[in-house]
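Exercise 7. Given the components listed, write out the predicted structure of the assembled complex. Treat all entries as one system.
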Amino acid sequence: MALKSWRELPIGGVILESGSSVDYLTGGWRAERPIIDMDRCTSCMICWIFCPEGGILVEESKVTGIDMDHCKGCGICALECPPKVIKMVQEVTALEGEQGR
Amino acid sequence: MTMTRSKGSVTDRVQGEPIALDGAKAVAQAMRQMNPDVVAAYPITPQTEIVQTFSEYVANGEVDTEFVAVESEHAAMSACIGAAAAGGRVQTATTSAGMAFMWEVLYVASSLRLPIIMAVANRALSAPLNIHCDHSDAMGARDAGWLQVYAEDVQEAYDNAFQALRIAEHPDVMLPVMHCQDGFIISHGVERLELLPDGAVKEFIGTYTPRYSLLDTEHPATFGPVDLQDHYFEHKRQQVDGMEKALAVVEEIGQEYGDLTGRYYGHLSPYRLEDAEIAIVVMGSTAGTTKIAVDKMRERGIKAGLLKLRTFRPFPADAVAEALAGVSAVAVLDRAIAFGSQGNPIFLDVCTSLYASGARPDVVNYVYGLGGRDTTASQITTVYADLLNIAETGQRGPLVRYLGLRE
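Answer.
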C-alpha cells in the first residue's frame, strides 16, 4: 500500500473507510511468534475467540494457521489453548528456521 | 500593514446598540447570539461570569444550547471534543489553572481539527496562588495548535468572539480558536460597547456543515485512531498548513466584520507608528495604556509608536517585520515568562520575524504586569525613555528587563 502525502490525507487523522486495519500490517511488531502443532490441534476455537487481532485463520470450522501479517505476538492464544499445542518461539529463531529451510 | 480599510459602504452597516457591560458578560452575550449546539464548561475565576451568565440564558430558554455541567476542565474540553466530532458548533470558556488542566485535551482538539471556540479570561498560574491577570495560561498553551486572538477592550472581546467562530470553521483552517481577554481588567471592567442585533450575528456566522461527523451515518468516519510512525508526521504537517492559511483567513474575516460593523480587524493595529523612531509591541489591555504613553511622548516631540498585536497564533511574522522595519529601537512587552529562555514568548517571535526579514532594529524585552500588577502609562513612558537612550547611544543594555518590579 503506497502511503499518501500530507496533502492527500484527510485532515485530523480521520479514517473514512471501514475495515482499513486489514491494510495495516502489524506483524512487524512481533517479538515472539505462535507456532501451532497442527497434528495435536483440536480446533476448539478458544484461540480464535481470544485472539485480539482476529489473526487465527479458519477454514470450514478448522484452525488452519495464523495470519502473520497481523499477529502481534501477544501470546494470548498460547496461554489460553486448552491442549497447550501453541508455543511461542522467538521471532529471530523462527526467521532463522525459515531461512534454514 | 495588515490593518485593513473599508470596501463596503457605510449604509450596509448594521446599527449597534450602545450598552455598558464588562468583558465577561459581553462574551456571554456573544455566545447567546451565536447559540452554540453545545457548551461544556467548568467555572473558575475570572471566567466564572462568562459561563454563569451563559447558563442563565440556557435556563431561561433564550438559547437552544445543550449545556454540560462537567466535573473539571479536562472533562469540559473532552465533552467539547466529542460534541464537535459529532458535528456540533461547540464553545467553552476557561482561565489559568483550568486551562492548565485541559492541557492534554487541548492538543486533541486541535489535532482532530475541531473548530471549538474557547473564551479565555487570562489569569496567572499558581504558585503562589494568584487570581489576577497575566498571560501565563495561554502562553503555556502556545504550542497546542490553537489560534490565539487577544482583545484590548470589551468591544474587541465581544467582536473577537464572532470572528473566532468564522476563522475556526473556515475550510482552510479547521482549528480551534481561543479568544482572550485580560482577566478582571477586561473581564470585570465595565465599558461602553455596541451590541450587534441578533439577526446580524445569525447572518454573519451562517450555518456550519462539518467536513466529517460522527453522527453522519451515511458517511461513517473514525475519529482519533492510533496514528504511528507512518502517518503522525503527515498529520502534524497538515496542522501547520491550517495555521499558515489562517493568516489570510483572519484578515478576510476581519475585513468582512468591518464591512458589517465599521470595526475592522487584522493581525496588527499600529498607533502613530508611520514615522516612529521607537516602538513598543504589546498585546491585550496594556495596548490602550500604551496609546496614552505614546501621546505623552509625542507631545514632547518624541517619535514614539505602538504596534498592537492581536493574533499571537498564527504569529503574523512578515507583517510584524514590515511594521517595525523603519524603527531604530523596539521594546516588546510580555505578560508572561518563558523560564530559562532567551527572552519571553512575544519577544522571541518578534526577534525571529525581524531576523528572518533582515531588519535589525535594537530589540529589548520587558516583562510586565505579572499576577495582575498594574502597569501605568507613566511606567510605559519610562520604556520609551529607555528606547530613546538606546536609539541615541547605540548601547542596547540588558536584553530582558522587568517593568514595575521592586528591584
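Discussion: Chain A touches chain B at residues 3-6, 9-16, 18 (CB under 8 Å). The two ends of chain A are 29 Å apart (CA to CA).
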